[in-house]
Structure formats: C-alpha cells, structure tokens
Amino acid sequence: SRLDPASTQSTPQGSGTATPDSHSAIDTLSEQDEGTLTPSSKQTTPTTSPNSFVRVPSESNRKVGEPRLVTVHRPGVEVGVTLCGGNLRGVYIESLDEDSPARGPNGLLPGDLILEYNLVNMKNKTAEEVYVEMLKPAETVTLKVQHRPDDFNTIKDAPGDGFYIRALYDRVGEAEGDLSFKKDDILYVDESLPKGSFGTWMAWQLDENAQQIQRGQIPSKYMMDQEFYRRHSVTEMKEDSSKTLSAAARRSFFRRKQKHKRSSSKDSKEMVALDTISTDSIPFLDDCVSLAYQRVQKVDCTSLRPVLVLGPLSDPVKEMLVKESPGKFCRCLLEVMKASQQAIERGVKDCLFIDYKRRSGHFDVTTVASIKEITDKGCHCLLDIAPHAIERLHSVHIYPIVVFIRYKNAKQIKEQKDPIFLRDKISQKHSKEQFESAQKIEQEYSKFFTGIVQGGNLPYICTQITTIVDQEQSKVLWTPLGSP
C-alpha cells in the first residue's frame, strides 16, 4: 500500500495525489491502481483497421454507457485518434481522423473512455502512458471502452493529469517557455501531452510549502531517459571497445522502427529525437529506473520528526543538544532486553524494533514505541541507530531528519575540545577512525541525508543542526511514490 499525499489512504503504485490547485473532481471510476496525475492533452494515438470489429450494441444503446469491446486489425502504427483527459479523470477519445481505421458503425466514438487496451488496464494512467501503450506494434488490438459523453464534455477542455516528481538533474531552460530547475526540486506535472506533443511535459515548480511558483515546459521522462541511456552507451564505447555490442543494444532500446503521424508541428530537432523512440520496448510505468525524475508523494507530518545525527562526535553533539534545549530534543532510551538473537530479529521483521546492539548478556533495542512516546510529547527524538536502519523507520511511516557532520580531515576532529562534553582529549587513532567511518557513511547513505553541517566546535555544530531541524520540520515532506 502507498500513502496518498492528499488523503493519507493507501494507494497502489502510480496513483497520484490531489493536485495543488483546483483538480479536486477525481473521476469515480478511479480505483487508484496504476497511474499518475496529468491534465488533458490532445494527442494522436495509433489507429486500427476498419475491418474486423467485434459486434457491439447499436448506437442508441451506446448512450447507456455499458462497457464494450472494439477489436481492430491495423496495418501499422499510424495515428488515427486524438486523446484528452488523463490519470485524474480518465483518458478519452476526443476525435478520430477522417481516414482513421477506427471509424465505423461499430468503431470508436468521441467521448469513449478507454478502460483497457489489449488487456492492459488504462485506469489512472496519464495521457502519455496511454499513448505509449497504444504505440506498441500489434496487428490486432482490442479496446475496452465506455461511452460517457457527459463526463467527456466536462473534462475535454480541462486538465486531466497531475502528479508530483523530484528532479534528479539540473536543467537550464534554453527557449522561451522552458522551465529551469535544480536537482531535488519538486515539480507538479499537469500535462503529459501538451497540445498533442509527445516528449514534453508542462510542469509547475513548487516552493517548500508545495505552492506553485512558475509553470513551463520540461522534457518528459521518456525523452530524458533516452538521452541518459545514449550518453551511457557512448561512454561505454569509449571506455571499452568490447562493450560496443551492449552499447548498441542500449541504443536500440529507444530506437523507433516507423515514424508516426503527429498532431502538432515541431522543429526538426524534436522530430529527429522522437524518431529514436522505440515503440516496442519503451518501459511502461517503470519510474524506479528513471534517471531523470522520481515520482513522489506528499506526506503530512502531524508530530515532530525524529532526528538522526551521523558523523564524527555525534554522541557529544546529542548530549549538548539535550542539555541546551531540553524541551526541544530528547534522546531515545534504549530498552534492555534479554532474549535470543532470533527473537530480536523477529521483532525487527515484525516492525516492532528499529535497531539493536548486542551487549554482554543482553541487547540494547530501539523500539518503535519508544520513538513514538517521545514524539507524542512534542519533542524531537534523538535517535541512536545505525544508518542502515533508516529504511526500517520509513517502513513504519517514520521519516527522520538526518543530519551529517562533515569534517575536513582527522586532524580537525582531533583539535576539538569542550570542557563539559569533550573532557577527554581525542587521540590521533580515534580521530582517524571516526573520520574514515564518516567517509564510508557519506558514501553509502548520503541519499538519506536531510542536511550536512560543516565540522567545527560543538556549539557551532549544534546551532547548525537546530536551524536545519526547524527548517525541515516546517517544510512539506516528500517521499518516493510506492514507499510505505
């Protein structure tokens, strides 16, 4: 189950969240299975042959809105229909070309809601996702549609898509109307096929409170992933000529065998780029491998988030935080348990325990209950867990603020002194061990870091941590879509 950003009810992968503006009327047919949010886009989609349709009810009965099957033999991937709508309200047939093979007494109609395409469920799919599915080559295709003229007339001129993404790269807009953004910016995509143009999205840049700042055009996931794969292939070829075959195979991953008709004119550069898209092997709804964007969801935090401090001198730092701000920070008490290793691991598996440390004759255990007990009192719980346990916290819907202390070298650590919290002088060996351990932590777990503070004396570090905690607690929290 997934946490729905708007309603906090679980939704399967791909289900989107309520839009940050006015998209509130979500179609009742939505079961929030697989899909995303995207506004109405008018896009041509592959056609089908006019011969060989399954017999369907007469025109008069179609108005009742009973689902029906339309089976078509199509000679190629020519586009013959225009789509509108999206994952918020469903994708509809807006119009059919004059020469569309889908025309006919038993064919498709404007106002048909696409329920399935070749047995693939189209509910909650974006307009682009439906379009990509319909591009896949097949001599015979079957559509399950439902004629809903009233709903169609309501949504045909309104946005039908809407989903949140985290940018995984920096982009500077080159043309007028292009949206510039930085890595880790949150964007809200409200059109996945703007004016029928495959390969671009219309998106809003959001501020820390999820409010819309600026709207513009960005490359779609498919176009950017194609570019990243191409770059990777070229790099492979340069590094090792023996990998030429695999590099070529990667390039063919996005190679297109036939051109298709477009409903809007674009410059030749975009046409060339589009013609390299494969119609038979495009990853469908495969966001987990995208190098460009990560689908995310908005999470409402009703209590104060726990804090995990990683890096050198983290223990004296936590002691100082509690001493200086006792009503703000509280250390998580470890529960002493005399049990078998198997029993402790079972508690971890059952999501009762987050982490544990073996002591002589017992275990010191961090439990979910002890964390929630502190956060329920309106205090930031200072965690004492290993970084690998962060994902266990996420699995029980606890999202800590992770702060990493970064020192320049071991010598800087050794020089730190404090009359209260660092009474003992730090040895050269200990400072070197802490520095090397911190390097490994940063290398392996930096993806979990909420903030990084530069090493120095303890009061300086604590001030930085307090500032980060206050800032992060006030921000909207975003988690990957599909995470617990």
UniProtKB/TrEMBL annotation:
UniProt-listed SMART domains:
GuKc (SM00072), PDZ (SM00228), SH3 (SM00326)
- Which stretches does UniProt call biased (Polar residues)? 1-29
- The residue ranges of the PDZ domain are 69-149
Keywords annotated in UniProt: SH3 domain
User: What's this protein's name?
Assistant: Disks large 5
Organism, per UniProt? Ataeniobius toweri
Q: Where in this protein does the record put region Disordered?
A: 1-66
Limits of the Guanylate kinase-like domain: 340-470
**UniProt xrefs under PANTHER family:** DISKS LARGE HOMOLOG 5
**For bias kind Low complexity, which ranges apply?**
36-50
Entry keyword annotation includes Ribonucleoprotein: no
Source domain of life: Eukaryota
Q: Does the keyword Lipid biosynthesis apply?
A: no
**Database matches in InterPro entries:** DLG5_SH3, GK/Ca_channel_bsu, Guanylate_kin-like_dom, MAGUK_Signaling_Regulators, P-loop_NTPase, PDZ, PDZ_sf, SH3-like_dom_sf
The SH3 domain covers which part of the protein?
Answer: 160-228
